[in-house]
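Input record (one chain):
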Amino acid sequence: MQANIKKENGTLFVAVSGRLDTVTSLELNEMLDKEGTAGLDIDFDFTDVEYISSAGLRLILALQRQVMETNNKMVIRNINKVVSEIFSVAGFNKTLTIV
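The corresponding structure, as predicted from the sequence alone:
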Protein backbone atom coordinates (compact mmCIF):
# COMPACT_ATOMS: atom_id res chain seq x y z
CA MET A 1 0.00 0.00 0.00
CA GLN A 2 1.14 3.46 -0.80
CA ALA A 3 -0.56 6.73 0.03
CA ASN A 4 -0.08 10.24 -1.25
CA ILE A 5 -1.45 12.70 1.31
CA LYS A 6 -1.77 16.47 1.00
CA LYS A 7 -3.72 19.20 2.78
CA GLU A 8 -5.35 21.94 0.78
CA ASN A 9 -8.07 24.45 1.71
CA GLY A 10 -9.40 22.50 4.70
CA THR A 11 -9.40 19.15 2.92
CA LEU A 12 -7.06 16.22 3.36
CA PHE A 13 -6.61 14.53 -0.03
CA VAL A 14 -5.56 10.89 0.26
CA ALA A 15 -4.70 8.85 -2.84
CA VAL A 16 -4.28 5.21 -1.87
CA SER A 17 -2.88 2.39 -4.02
CA GLY A 18 -2.53 -1.34 -3.49
CA ARG A 19 -4.28 -3.42 -0.85
CA LEU A 20 -5.89 -1.99 2.25
CA ASP A 21 -5.61 -4.96 4.63
CA THR A 22 -4.74 -5.54 8.29
CA VAL A 23 -1.12 -4.41 8.04
CA THR A 24 -1.55 -1.61 5.53
CA SER A 25 -4.60 -0.18 7.31
CA LEU A 26 -2.45 0.31 10.39
CA GLU A 27 0.20 2.00 8.24
CA LEU A 28 -2.37 4.30 6.66
CA ASN A 29 -3.86 5.12 10.06
CA GLU A 30 -0.39 6.08 11.35
CA MET A 31 0.21 8.25 8.28
CA LEU A 32 -3.13 10.01 8.76
CA ASP A 33 -2.48 10.49 12.49
CA LYS A 34 0.89 12.05 11.70
CA GLU A 35 -0.67 14.33 9.10
CA GLY A 36 -3.61 15.24 11.33
CA THR A 37 -7.24 14.82 10.31
CA ALA A 38 -9.08 16.80 12.99
CA GLY A 39 -11.38 19.47 11.61
CA LEU A 40 -10.68 18.55 7.98
CA ASP A 41 -12.78 17.12 5.18
CA ILE A 42 -11.26 13.92 3.82
CA ASP A 43 -11.22 13.11 0.11
CA PHE A 44 -10.04 9.58 -0.69
CA ASP A 45 -9.03 8.56 -4.21
CA PHE A 46 -9.30 4.77 -4.48
CA THR A 47 -8.41 4.58 -8.19
CA ASP A 48 -5.53 2.19 -7.49
CA VAL A 49 -6.97 0.29 -4.50
CA GLU A 50 -7.13 -3.37 -5.49
CA TYR A 51 -8.77 -4.77 -2.35
CA ILE A 52 -10.05 -3.68 1.06
CA SER A 53 -10.33 -6.04 4.04
CA SER A 54 -12.44 -5.75 7.17
CA ALA A 55 -9.54 -3.87 8.81
CA GLY A 56 -9.63 -1.33 5.98
CA LEU A 57 -13.38 -1.04 6.36
CA ARG A 58 -12.97 -0.39 10.11
CA LEU A 59 -10.49 2.39 9.38
CA ILE A 60 -12.84 4.01 6.86
CA LEU A 61 -15.76 3.73 9.31
CA ALA A 62 -13.69 5.26 12.14
CA LEU A 63 -12.68 8.16 9.91
CA GLN A 64 -16.29 8.66 8.82
CA ARG A 65 -17.39 8.89 12.46
CA GLN A 66 -14.56 11.31 13.23
CA VAL A 67 -15.43 13.70 10.42
CA MET A 68 -19.13 13.58 11.29
CA GLU A 69 -18.36 14.59 14.89
CA THR A 70 -16.75 17.80 13.64
CA ASN A 71 -19.39 18.42 10.94
CA ASN A 72 -16.88 17.71 8.21
CA LYS A 73 -17.33 15.45 5.20
CA MET A 74 -15.61 12.41 3.76
CA VAL A 75 -15.77 11.33 0.12
CA ILE A 76 -14.41 8.20 -1.52
CA ARG A 77 -13.79 8.49 -5.26
CA ASN A 78 -12.99 6.13 -8.09
CA ILE A 79 -13.59 2.72 -6.52
CA ASN A 80 -13.28 -0.33 -8.73
CA LYS A 81 -15.84 -3.12 -9.04
CA VAL A 82 -14.22 -5.37 -6.42
CA VAL A 83 -14.07 -2.62 -3.78
CA SER A 84 -17.57 -1.48 -4.72
CA GLU A 85 -18.93 -4.99 -4.11
CA ILE A 86 -17.16 -5.17 -0.72
CA PHE A 87 -18.64 -1.80 0.28
CA SER A 88 -22.07 -2.97 -0.89
CA VAL A 89 -21.94 -6.27 1.04
CA ALA A 90 -20.82 -4.40 4.17
CA GLY A 91 -23.60 -1.83 3.69
CA PHE A 92 -21.07 1.00 3.42
CA ASN A 93 -22.55 2.15 0.12
CA LYS A 94 -25.54 3.39 2.16
CA THR A 95 -23.56 5.30 4.79
CA LEU A 96 -20.55 6.65 2.88
CA THR A 97 -20.38 9.24 0.13
CA ILE A 98 -18.97 7.33 -2.83
CA VAL A 99 -18.56 9.14 -6.14
